[in-house]
Amino acid sequence: MKNPTAIFSLKMFDILLLTAYYFIIAFFAATTIDKFLGKYEDRNDENKSTARLFLEAILHTFLLLVVFYIARNVVERIPFPLDGYYGFDHSRVKERGGDVVFVFIIFFYQDYYSKKLQTLYKRLMGTT
Asked: Measured between alpha carbons, how far is 6 from 11 in angstroms, rounded to an integer?
């Protein structure tokens, strides 16, 4: 028997769990990548061409997308413990993709990536 209030409550709980999964994965991925790359130094990019900075930014973005792809595949395989209760179907929850949470956390906590993009932007805008 379907109960709209129960279905809504289960959906909100499902979204909460999905948010937690993506937050944890994105946070640790961002901090791990930053630790691996080290502290960003503007002076290391001063002598690089704009094309090289673009290429580095594209490759870094590619790395983040690969991490997101892996994270999404892992999270999609985590079963929702209350799937089926009151007719709730976890597979129909659109937030399973986690795009918003993951991207927000990655951009917020990726200091190296943010600074690299700011350097590239300043160079393109002629403000350096």
From this structure: 8
CA 21 to chain CA centroid, Å, is 11
* 90 contacts 14 by C-beta, under 8 angstroms: yes
Residue appearing with tokens 């595949």: 73
Residue with tokens 């999964």: 21
DSSP letter string over 77-122?
A: TSPPTTTTGGG--GGG-GGGG-HHHHHHHHHHH-HHHHHHHHHHHH
pTM (2 decimals)?
0.78
Segment 62-73, tens digit of pLDDT:
988 898 889 888
* Pairwise pLDDT comparison (2 vs 55), residue with the higher score: 55
Reduced 3-state DSSP string for 30-80: HHHHHHHHCCCCHHHCCCCCHHHHHHHHHHHHHHHHHHHHHHHHHHHCCCC
Report the candidate in 106, 107, 82, 104 with the shortest Cα–Cα distance to residue 93. Answer: 82
pLDDT reported for residue 92: 73
